[in-house]
């Protein structure tokens, strides 16, 4: 079997050649313009950045992809789904405000922004996952599934639960509705904070299982009746209902892979990742730390698994930035101070920057499960584009 092709260009420029011009050349060399976009609705999945975070991708990069799609006669829109946690993107109105504040508007990108799972994160399509080990029916933002073509533009960075966030996380977790995100983060039923609950009863109106009752002006969940659909999370006005966050990171990584399969299966897709401002944590945080490695470049491929693998390999070849969380973690793994107990003698000790930064998670689990699901290949050929 042939290796998947991953195309790469560095962040180095010269007079008359901008980074945006290099990105345009990269995606054309990688074959994005070979997709039949004519009159096709095209979802361009991006992360608009949590307010306060400055590591997210600039909207200028998204415009390069949008311009190519429109040049080919397509109908692009930028999209993301609402977040499970409380923040600036938990409903469509706040989410749009955050996107506009961070520069993602029709004027800067050339297309509209659509929040895929609707006003409260409950507008979802139920997609059967063939061969899913943990997910039998993924809950995906409806606008994502209504699109004819799917394009992902990812900021490749570290992540505290999955090791790193790249193409697969942008697709699998990013396209899950609020209930879909709960399914990935939780083993089953949600939890209700009695302190936050105001007893409004909105959760009872959307529960098809009659699993929530209001008693003494507080909502209570019958876990035996609850099927874990998560729709109550979307309608709660005080964010009193949420996920239990009670599964292992390995299961989270595998669920994320199965959600990515649901998004991509059966339609054209293409993927771009920028390995710049490689913060140790997700862009969902309202702040960003010192990058753990220097800016590396831009990658593109039809295979999101090979793309993530190539980006991870590229990061792991870099020398950590002084003062970063990674550099501090590596210092602890010095032979004289190694905190993992191997005394610095274990082969590869400290060589995986993501495991070093977040030792409680193993990113390889996700990519290996993706390969098993048939999403893509772990083997790739890296092709440089000048």
TrEMBL record:
A Pfam short name: Fer4_7
Keywords: 4Fe-4S, Iron, Iron-sulfur, Metal-binding
Residue span(s) of domain 4Fe-4S ferredoxin-type: 188-215, 217-246
Single GO MF descriptor: 4 iron, 4 sulfur cluster binding
Keyword flag Cell division: no
InterPro entries for the chain: 4Fe4S_Fe-S-bd, 4Fe4S_Fe_S_CS, DUF362, PSI_iron-sulfur_center
Domain of life, source organism: Bacteria
PROSITE patterns registered for this protein in UniProt: 4FE4S_FER_1, 4FE4S_FER_2
Protein function: Ferredoxins are iron-sulfur proteins that transfer electrons in a wide variety of metabolic reactions.
Protein name: Ferredoxin
Originating organism: Aminipila luticellarii
């Amino acid at each position: 079997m042939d290796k998947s092709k991953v195309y790469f260009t560095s962040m180095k420029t010269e007079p008359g050649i901008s980074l945006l011009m290099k990105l345009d050349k990269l995606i054309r060399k990688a074959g994005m313009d070979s997709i039949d976009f004519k009159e096709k609705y095209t979802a361009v999945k991006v992360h608009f950045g949590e307010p306060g975070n400055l590591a997210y991708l600039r909207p200028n990069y998204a415009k390069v992809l949008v311009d190519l799609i429109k040049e080919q006669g397509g109908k692009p829109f930028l999209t993301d789904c609402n977040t499970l946690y409380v923040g600036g993107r938990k409903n469509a109105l706040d989410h749009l405000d955050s996107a506009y504040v961070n520069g993602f508007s029709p004027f800067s990108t050339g297309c509209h922004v659509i929040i895929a799972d609707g006003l409260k994160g409950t507008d979802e399509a139920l997609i059967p996952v063939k061969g899913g080990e943990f997910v039998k029916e993924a809950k995906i933002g409806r606008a994502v599934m209504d699109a004819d073509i799917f394009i992902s533009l990812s900021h490749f960075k570290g992540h505290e639960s999955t090791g790193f966030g790249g193409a697969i996380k942008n697709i699998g977790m990013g396209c899950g509705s609020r209930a879909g995100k709960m399914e990935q983060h939780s083993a089953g039923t949600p939890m209700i904070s009695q302190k936050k609950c105001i007893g409004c009863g909105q959760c009872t109106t959307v529960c098809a299982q009659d699993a929530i009752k209001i008693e003494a002006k507080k909502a209570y969940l019958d876990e035996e009746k609850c099927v874990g659909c998560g729709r109550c999370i979307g309608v709660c006005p005080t964010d009193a209902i949420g996920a239990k966050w009670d599964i292992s990171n390995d299961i989270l990584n595998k669920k994320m892979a199965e959600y990515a399969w649901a998004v991509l299966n059966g339609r054209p897709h293409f993927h771009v990742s920028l390995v710049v401002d490689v913060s140790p944590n997700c862009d969902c945080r309202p702040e960003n730390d010192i990058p753990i490695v220097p800016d590396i470049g831009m990658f593109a491929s039809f295979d999101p698994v090979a793309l993530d693998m190539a980006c991870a390999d590229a990061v792991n070849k870099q020398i950590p930035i002084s003062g970063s969380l990674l550099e501090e973690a590596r210092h602890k793994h010095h032979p004289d101070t190694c905190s993992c107990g191997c005394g610095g003698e274990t082969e590869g000790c400290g060589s995986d920057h993501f495991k070093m930064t977040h030792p409680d998670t193993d990113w390889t689990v996700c990519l290996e499960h993706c390969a098993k699901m048939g999403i893509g290949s772990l083997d790739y050929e890296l092709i440089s584009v000048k």
